[in-house]
Amino acid sequence: MTSTLGTTLSVTAGESTYAVGKIKSVSDITLTREALDCTTLDSTCKTYIPGLSGAEEITIQLLLDKQNAAQSALKGLYTSGAVAAYTVTFPDTTALSFSAFIKSLRFGGATAEGIALLQITLQATGGAVMA
User: How confident is the prediction along the chain (131 residues), in pLDDT tens digits per residue?
Assistant: First the structure.
């Protein structure tokens, strides 16, 4: 069993790597593989073979910090539509690395007692590597 307190996110864009700070949450990271139906007309049961694999969308929620260089870089990646390298590392050193583009940026609503949030949705492209 691994505690998630201390989970980190890094992003590499071009020659620069940023440690993304002020992480409030990371959504489930789901790796999927297509199941290709290869059932024939003389089959008595459905049969499948494994297809392409990939990672689904990943949502990261951050405390909004206008002065944070990593958050500024993420906003720039959204504007440019560039694909960058991301790594989520858990406290037990399990890491998941993948390439993704930023599909959406959502700025949290404001309340008198609230904290401003930034929610980033990443769309993974290509495979993901778990180490």
Answer: 667 888 999 999 989 999 998 899 999 888 888 999 999 999 999 999 999 988 889 999 999 888 889 999 999 999 999 999 999 999 988 899 999 999 999 988 776 778 888 999 999 998 788 88
Tokens of 10: 């890094």
Sorted by where each begins, the domain ranges of the chain are 8-130
Cα separation, 71 vs 22, whole angstroms: 9
CATH of domain 8-130: 4.10.410.40
Separation CA 8–CA 70 (nearest Å): 12
- Cα separation of the two ends of the chain: 17
8 Å CB contact between 70 and 18: yes
